Amino acid sequence: MLLSVDNLDIHYGHAQVLHQASMSLTEGELVCVVGRNGAGKTTLLRAIGGFMKPSAGDIVFKGEPMSGLSLEQVAQKGIKYVYQDKRVFGDLTVRENLELAAYPTGESMDSAIEKLVAIHPKMKKLLDAKAKGLSGGERQILLIGRALVGDPQLLLIDEPTEGLAAIIIGEIVDILLKMKSKITMVVVEQNLATVARLADRIYVMKEGVMAREITQREIIENPSNYEEEL
Amino acid sequence: MFAKIEKNQALTLGLIAALFLVYAYTTSLPRITDFIIFCIFVMGFDLLYGHMGQLSFGHMLYLGAGAYGCGMFAYHVSPNPFVCILMGILTAAGLAALLGQVVVKTGGAAFALLNLALNEVGAYLVLSPMHRITGGEDGLSLFFQSYGFINFGDSVFRFYFCLAVLLLVAFLLLRLVRSPFGNLLKAIKEDEVRARFLGYNTYLYKYVTFIISGAVCGLAGALTSVNLAYCNTSLIAPTRNVEVIFSALIGGAGSVMGAVVGGTAYMTISNYLAAYIVRWEMFLGIALLFFAFYFRKGIWGYARRA
Amino acid sequence: MINLIQSLLYGLTIGGVLYIISVGLSLTFGAMGIVNFSHGLVYAVGAYAVYTVAKLLGAGYLLGLVAAIVVSIPLSYLIERLVIRRLYGQAIDYAIIATYAVLLIGADSLRWVYGASPLPISDPVGVLWTFGGLQMPAFRLIIIILSGLIFIGLNLFFKKTLVGKIVVAGLQDREAVRSLGIKVERHFAIVFVIGSALAALGGALYAPLSTLDPYMGFEILILCFAVVIVGGMGNLTGTTIAAFALGMVHSLTAVYIVSSAADAAVYVVMAAVLIFRPIEA
Questions:
Q1: What ipTM goes with this model?
Q2: % residues pLDDT > 90 (chain B)
Q3: Beta strands in chain C (DSSP E)
């Protein structure tokens, strides 16, 4: 077991947004979390990433409790978060974005650049471009490449295809599939077709609760059963 | 016990009156009159800070506007004290209505600093370009007409008059903060975006509150002029803003009773203790740090919960 | 015409000093969301350090400049550790109150040691350059050149060094920097000390053009807040432009209207800018 989340409660002020959420991952898995807007998917992901403190419940990563650790500490334990809204450091170049990712992990710049170029060779030409000038897809790729620096064991990816054109979605999905054998991932995703291609297992969330777990097969065979829930 | 007192309006006002009477007759009437006027200033300031959630670092401007509005009218136009006080209030409220249009559109740091900058401009205008009517650095010596027992030259009358005004202001502010208007202010303080989302024109509410706050501070300024029988630039000095901020903080921001407690506590310290404290500003600074880090509820906030 | 050129040059001097002091203020504002009144204290301490070394010890102005910077480093480190760091993520009013308290404590300490009366420092260069009818103290030109060098130096710092890049990224998205595993507050602290050292340098440079008094930090600070607000909090380019623009406003008002109105004119410009671009933070 790489990660286990047990009975997690999260509050925003007085409102409880996550109720006793539980999930578990073994090494090498790609798990998708699906559900409507406001179902608590991103909240769950951010709690695992160390962005918010749960009011109850445990997060255990490689046998070690994560609750109480700061965001920086969680990152240094090997859990990296890939942002939803393409939050690259716009005033820095692509290379500098990688440089910041490499600094706390001690990885060399050459190897960091190699990782980005390996998932998308065209980035080689963009290394010295300001990140704010990149297209949406390029920014998403940079975020994924940046997260790979330092060889994390778990990637938390929030809606990687949102707002992107269909061709680029295909490219991103291919990238994630290529990474699949090497790294464990939790992906929050709305698009059922994408989920069907990616996921080993699928958690469905509803109103802050883990409603149930389904398989890739079920989605492929009976997509209409789930469209309503998303 | 304290929480119960605060819920009962008559009890709150009665307690304020009783405490000031005891305090005044055991110490000195003129001095406690100063305290009372200062408490009115703190109440006006705290309407913005404690109730609306915006810290102004320049409310000496409105105290000064009230003081000079009252003082200049007494000096140049008519010595009728009531008209003078009214003119002080109107000057401050008018200034707040003018500047508030810009100020309430800002928030947080910009709100605090814009008020400070405007306070600087006001202090400069009084000191230099307008010195012919404000008396410049020397200020104005004032005389007020007396009508029978209504004699502002008499310190006993001044004490009771100011106490009555304090009670009236406290009464009106208590009514205000417990009205639907006050509830909306609380909502704006907690989350302005949400209040706006619910369809309220939060600017309008903040604007009106800013004018009321300016008017109350102006009233305190006008009373200061009447009480001292002069007005000078120390009544508009930007460096004195810390006094009212400190008072609101030690009393407990966001409560009318807290403003009175804080104002009285500050004046007591600065009048009676300052003589024994060699390094006054150092003391004030350390006390500010203590309250800002460890005692944010303030005296009244603490008593109320205990 | 000569009058205009002269006042423009004076405006550059004031703009340069405002720039040197405001950079640190703007960074603390933008990076940590803290209004830092104690910056004015460090400025005053810089001026008093020059006074002590150059005038009391007679060791010369240059050594005084060095002393100003050297003293400001441990002082600002202490302020950061004891006060600023506790204010991260707190409501802005507590930041204002706590840092103002530091300013009060420091100003009173200065008064304790040096007394309350204004102290003069003479022009350390003492050379007056004249071109035609134009008269310009060499020291003012040195300030202008120095502020230009600091501008270039800071740009290199933010573009070329890792700490600089972390701060640039942190200004834009602090959480994202932390999520990479970087302790961003620690890097902000380094920049805080650099900004404070510049404030002390600003105080040391401006002292010969004015006089010293324990509360000198308060007045200049409000001018610098105007610079930061007009330039955009945490916006380094904006801060630079605003510093020189407001320096011009200050100088031109002093020459063409009346010198006592110069500060007020800057605040009026600040209010006008806020009318068109309100800041709600």
A1: 0.92
A2: 83
A3: 119-120, 128-131, 134-137, 211-212
- The single-letter DSSP state of residue A162 is T
Assess contact for A178 and A208: CB atoms under 8 A. Answer: no
Q: What confidence category does residue A209 fall into, taking pLDDT thresholds of 50, 70 and 90?
A: confident
What is the residue type of A62? K
Q: Label each residue of C155-202 as H, E or C.
A: HHHHHHCHHHHHHHHHHHCHHHHHHCCCCHHHHHHHHHHHHHHHHHHH
User: Does pLDDT of B235 surpass 70?
Assistant: yes
Cβ-Cβ contacts under 8 Å for A61 (sequence gap 6 or more): A2, A3, A77, A78, A79, A154
Whose structure tokens read 């310009």?
C136
The closest alpha carbon to B146, from B59, B237, B74, B62, belongs to: B74
Averaged pLDDT, B67-81: 96
* Residues C251/C11, Cβ–Cβ less than 8 Å: yes
The mean pLDDT values, 10 residues at a time, for chain C of 281 residues are 88 96 92 91 97 93 96 96 89 92 96 94 88 88 95 94 94 92 92 96 94 93 95 90 96 93 95 87 61
CB-nearest partner of C183 from A72, A83, A89: A72
Buried b / exposed e along C69-105 (16+ C-beta atoms within 10 A): bebbeebbeebbeebbbebeeeebbbbbbbbbbbbbb
Q: How many CB pairs under 8 A join B and C?
A: 128
C278 touches chain A (CB under 8 A): no
pLDDT of A31 higher than 90: yes
Prediction pTM value: 0.90
Collapsed DSSP state (helix, strand, coil) of residue A180: coil
Contacts of C178 in chain A (CB under 8 A): 70-72, 75
Residues of A in contact with C235 (CB under 8 A): none
- Helix, strand, coil tally for chain C in percent (to 5): 80, 5, 15
Contact call for residues B62 and B70 (beta carbons, < 8 A): no
C218 touches B at CB < 8 Å: yes
Which residues of chain C make contact with B242, given a CB cutoff of 8 A? 100, 104
